[in-house]
Specification:
The chain is an all-alpha fold. It contains four helices and no strands.
């Protein structure tokens, strides 16, 4: 997950904004690898300790991350460069799935 943030460099931020398109590293495989890494870490917590709280966190995180991705992409699709990137990198989060 740290590698995805390194690839983002100055484009990293908490709130969605138009900062440029990153196409190196894991961003060549999926459009949102940092979110994929975040969900993998939460899933790892569920595997390590499958209690109601960790399962609930994962069940809550998945739709919230999906909503964030949709909101972010709505903003980013206003840029031709991102639309072109989205055509080249088809998958948002998981290759072959979404």
């Amino acid at each position: 997950m740290y590698a995805t943030f390194l690839c983002l460099g100055r484009s990293f931020a908490i709130l969605p904004a138009l900062r440029g398109v990153v196409v190196r590293g894991s961003y060549r495989l999926v459009r949102h690898p940092a979110y994929a890494g975040e969900l993998l870490m939460i899933a790892g917590c569920v595997v390590a300790r499958p209690v109601a709280g960790s399962v609930a966190a994962l069940l809550l995180a998945v739709p919230l991350v999906a909503l964030r991705i949709r909101a972010e992409e709505e903003l980013l699709m206003s840029r031709e460069r991102y639309r072109s990137y989205a055509e080249q990198v088809r998958w948002r989060l998981v290759p072959g799935v979404w």
